[in-house]
Specification:
Strand content of chain A: 15-25%
Oligomer: heterodimer
Shape of chain B: globular
Number of strands of chain B: 0
Largest interface: A-B, 75 and 77 residues
Number of helices of chain A: 6
Helix content of chain B: over 70%
Strand order of the largest sheet of chain A: 2-3-4-6-5
Number of helices of chain B: 14
Radius of gyration of chain A: 26 Å
Largest sheet of chain A: 5 strands, mixed, barrel
Order of helices and strands of chain B: HHHHHHHHHHHHHH
Order of helices and strands of chain A: HHHHHEHEEEEE
Chain lengths: ~240, ~300
């Protein structure tokens, strides 16, 4: 096997292992939607299989093995070699792998909110009532923001259970979380201002807020908290 | 191996260098988006190179000649419509289109296929219908505008096209499944490298340019169209998910969002890098602006008439 062919198999194998590892550990949920997991496993298996076949069944035509074919091969290799045989930017495929294991970034957090913007309360639409429950009702932050302008006032008087990371806009305390359609590149933020509890958490730490919707202040949703507790950062940072 | 080691060393040094000078949070954001775009594209790229490897090995040029009309002006829309059979997103279609030209499909027809396939296949159309449950007309408009844009670009390319750079010519005498493995691996590593360049560009723009700047221009219908075309190019998200992003862009008109859905699968940062790597830089410099212009015009007209 010539060197570029070996390099290609090596790169494909590493990328296959990366896909498998991300999907099996569930780590992919920091970057892409959870549902992509099975596809990553399939892609990882295919890549590893291709690489292993290429490495094990190395029957590339050796010089001198084939008479006529040999000359033909040589003729083409003279001008096509540089294209056919260079891996070139293919090595860049290892950059995401290195970024993942060397930088090991925390999930996108409060810094990114000003980059991607937060979803604002949409025009009033008729939401279904929140489910009946004895305790606080878990609701996604994005839904809280969506329901805040709700014509049916579905949030009024209901105790809510909200989870997200802490943002400190101008010293106040807001709770935020991203939602994604496909991957972190299309993340959209949702945030609510939290009042009624002393602020004791740093930006980007994860907390669970129990409280209820108070009012819209401009286009900011305000929630009055009865409790704020730290929680470990969830394996799936998006909602 | 030496290159890998050098890259790894450069990464380590670079990390220390940049971490001290950039906001750590900005770097983390960049890294997240960079990894996200790369990982998100991986399954579709793998699907694409398996199909492209199969085409390179098993698709007989004689079959293409029998299926595709000999009249090129007719072959272009036929190729655009046949994009409906590749259930992937845009990362799949570039290596597939490259192998199709190699097997004898005329370049304008292959390009029409390249442009339409990521937007008009059933998976993407169903995703669009799910994202816009009350707007069935939008699904049709997306299909129609994408096929039309792909065909128009194909026809224009017959007049203003530039030749593509020399393709890697696999004179592989082994044939059969072993050659298919080699072709797939070749296409994966080749396209993947350029994909990573595109992912880095998308991550950089997302870290530097605040997306909120868009919110202010939504009220002007003309500027909105251009703003969302620009957003589609910068975001570089997969065509199977872009409809879900478009539903959230409620401050923009439906026509502007249709343009977003037509431009996104055809031109974005990772695709420009992918096309430059596959067909040559000179090709990409002409192909990408031409496609954006046609997509904006066709999307606006179709949107105004149908939506």
């Amino acid at each position: 096997m010539d060197r570029p062919a070996f390099s290609r198999s090596f790169i494909a194998f590493v990328m296959g292992l990366l896909a498998l590892r991300l999907a099996i550990t569930g780590k992919h949920r920091q970057f892409v939607r959870a549902g992509l997991g099975p596809y990553l496993i399939a892609a990882g298996l295919v890549l590893c299989l291709l690489a292993v076949i290429a490495l094990l069944h190395d029957d590339a035509p050796d010089l001198g093995e084939r008479g006529d074919d040999h000359n033909h091969y040589r003729d083409h290799s003279a001008n096509a070699d540089s294209v056919r045989h260079s891996v070139g930017p293919g090595w860049l495929l290892l950059l995401p792998v290195m970024a993942l294991f060397l930088v090991a970034p925390a999930p996108i957090g409060s810094w990114g909110l000003k980059q991607v913007g937060s979803s604002s309360a949409g025009r009033s639409k008729n939401w279904a009532p929140l489910p009946l429950a004895s305790g606080p009702i878990p609701v996604r932050l994005r839904e809280v923001v969506g329901r805040a302008n709700d014509a049916t006032l579905s949030l009024r008087g209901r105790p809510l259970l909200l989870e997200g990371f802490v943002v400190r806009p101008g010293g106040s305390f807001a709770l935020a979380r991203y939602s994604i359609a496909c991957c972190a590149a299309d993340a959209q933020g949702a945030q609510v201002l939290v009042e009624g509890q002393p602020i004791s958490f740093a930006s980007d730490s994860w907390v669970r807020v129990i409280g209820s919707f108070v009012e819209m202040r401009g286009d900011v949703v305000v929630v009055r908290a009865s409790s704020v507790d730290p929680i470990p950062s969830p394996p799936e940072p998006f909602e | 191996m030496a290159v890998a080691a050098a890259l790894m060393a450069a990464g380590l040094i670079g990390r220390r260098f940049f971490a001290e000078r950039l906001q750590a949070a900005a770097l983390a954001h960049w890294t997240n988006v960079f990894i996200a775009v790369s990982v998100q594209a991986l399954p579709f790229l793998v699907l694409g190179v398996v199909v492209s490897g199969t085409i390179a090995t098993f698709l007989k040029p004689s079959l293409i000649r029998r299926v595709l009309p000999t009249n090129l002006a007719l072959a272009v829309p036929v190729a655009a419509l046949s994009g409906a059979v590749l259930p992937g997103c845009e990362c799949s279609s570039v290596p597939v289109a490259a192998r199709l030209t190699q097997r004898g499909v005329p370049l304008p027809a292959a390009l029409a296929f390249l442009l339409s396939a990521p937007a008009v296949n059933p998976v993407v159309l169903v995703a669009t219908a799910v994202a816009f449950p009350h707007r069935p007309m939008l699904v049709f408009a997306r299909f129609f505008a994408s096929v039309l844009t792909a065909s128009v670009v194909g026809w224009l390319w017959m007049r203003v096209g530039v030749p593509i750079s020399a393709q890697a010519d696999e004179h592989d005498h082994r044939g059969g499944w072993r050659a298919m493995v080699d072709a797939s691996l070749h296409d994966f590593v080749h396209a993947g490298g350029y994909l990573v360049i595109g992912a880095a560009a998308a991550a950089t723009l997302q870290t530097v340019v605040p997306r909120g700047a868009l919110d202010r221009v939504g009220s002007n219908p003309v500027i909105a169209v251009f703003a969302l075309a620009g957003l589609a190019i910068v975001l570089s998200i997969c065509s199977e998910a872009d409809a879900f992003v478009a539903t959230g862009l409620t401050q923009f008109s439906l026509t502007a969002r249709l343009v977003f859905l037509v431009v996104g699968p055809m031109v974005d940062l990772k695709l420009i890098a992918l096309q430059a790597g596959t067909f040559g830089r000179r090709f990409a410099l002409r192909f990408a602006p031409l496609t954006v212009a046609v997509a904006i015009v066709v999307g606006s007209v179709v949107g105004t008439v149908l939506l």
